[in-house]
Amino acid sequence: MDIAHLPRRSFLRGAAGLAxxxxxxxxxxxxxxxxxxxxxxxxxxxEWGARPPADALTTLDHPAxxxxxxxxxxxxxxxxxxxxxxxxxxxxQHDHIDNxxxxxxxxxxTVSRGGYRLEGRHGSLDxxxxxxxxxxxxxxxxxxxxxxxxxxEGLYTSVEPPExxxxxxxxxxxxxxxxxxxxxxxxxxxxxxxxxxxxxDRLYAKLPQLRSEVAKALTSM
Length: 221
Ligand SMILES: [Zn+2]
Prior knowledge:
By secondary structure, the chain is of the alpha/beta class. The chain has a single domain, classed as Lysozyme-like, CATH 3.40.80.10. The protein is built from seven helices and nine strands. Strands 6-5-8-4-9 form a five-stranded mixed beta sheet, with helices on both faces. It has a two-stranded antiparallel sheet with strand order 1-2. The longest helix has 18 residues, at about 80-100. The structure holds zinc ion. Zinc ion (ZN) binds near residues 70 and 196.
């Protein structure tokens, strides 16, 4: 059964305080988990100079159960600086609000080509730290109330992401999986749930490697 067809909100409300670990319905109490993972550095909206959301955002009273990997389909910049990463985040937010008419940046998080991890949509970082809620996203129709969206700066149709960016994505996904109790098998590509070439053939081809490296990272968290 496609988990997306389950009545997730009502199901998860009934399972308050529990983290859903897998499409098979295995449920692990948060309390049974070890202490919260050491958090990697993630730059908040305030740090990169986000503008306020155009409309009120929705906080969902349940954890995320999937991660969707995207590419921004932006230029493959050779500027790997933090300042550039901040500019990418601001440009993306302007694009999503002004051109798409969305309330805020569509995705929850962004990874720059230089490997910097940034918050996308306001509130996503606090929700991740708290482990029991998520902010409704706007990164994939049908998945916005259950999947965390990560946009990777760049265009990966014919080239692979830089090693630094991929390594950063591994750390980021491991932390998100750990916080929300998401099994590595639920790290998917945008195209798995929507008619799009995103995240590009080359990044999509690396998703099995991403899952295995995240699984490895989780054993040491
Ligand atoms: Zn996408």
